[in-house]
Design a protein that fits this description.
The chain is of the alpha/beta class. The termini are far apart. α5 crosses α8 (about 175-185). α2 links the parallel β1 (about 10-15) and β2. The chain is globular, with a radius of gyration of 16 Å. The strands form two sheets. It has a five-stranded parallel sheet. The protein has a four-stranded parallel sheet with strand order 7-8-6-9, with helices on both faces. Helix content is about 35%, strand content about 20%. The longest helix has 14 residues, at about 125-140. The protein is built from eight helices and nine strands.
Length: about 200
């Protein structure tokens, strides 16, 4: 399915803006295609000022900061939750009670992308192996992108850049793997570094 069609006319709640750049990048991407976004975060606006400044130009975003509200998990088409949100969150329970799909951005990317996805996980060595594979593929003149649990790199915007035949190397922590597990999908190629 084309990602533009997937997000078109949708009202989406994004749970977790954060300060590391991944949330900002995903939200900026979604704001270009979705009808309306509700962005909610436990942190107050004062703590999120740098992230909010980067999203100022988007008029279709409503912010509910300093806590979550149950009504933001009702009457929406999709909920995208940040990696650190516990599975037993009452807000995620509310969304599911209302038959609203709950996604995580990295798994959603993998499902919608035409690129070949290489996923790297493990207790130790994820970052090193992810960057090593990325650099090897780049040196081999492959069209390759980096995403997942990489600081400052949002994964959903890669949907605009990638096409069939490209390779996306994703570092996946245990939280992000929950999204793959819930969607019952897997990267095309999986690397497991260690388990401790």
């Amino acid at each position: 399915m084309d990602f533009r069609e997937y997000f078109k006319n949708k009202k989406i709640t994004v749970m977790g803006l954060g300060l590391l750049g991944r949330g900002v990048g995903d939200i900026a991407f979604l704001a270009q295609y979705a009808k309306e976004l509700i962005v909610t975060d436990l942190k107050p606006s004062t703590a999120l000022r740098p992230s909010l400044a980067k999203l100022r130009k988007f008029e279709n975003i409503t912010y509910h900061l300093g806590g979550h509200r149950l009504e933001d998990f009702q009457n929406v088409d999709l909920v995208i939750k940040a990696a650190g949100v516990p599975l037993d969150s009452p807000y995620i329970t509310e969304a599911r009670k209302n038959n609203i799909p709950v996604e995580m951005s990295t798994a959603l990317f993998a499902r919608l992308s035409l690129a070949t996805v290489v996923g790297i996980t493990g207790t130790r060595g994820k970052s090193t192996v992810t960057h090593l594979i990325y650099e090897i593929l780049k040196a081999a003149n492959k069209k390759v992108y980096l995403g997942g649990n990489v600081r400052g790199v949002a994964t959903l915007p890669l949907l605009k850049k990638t096409k069939k035949g490209d390779i996306v190397v994703l570092e996946l922590d245990s939280w992000q793997l929950q999204g793959f597990g819930e969607d019952k999908i897997s990267p095309h190629i999986s690397v497991f570094t260690t388990f401790m």
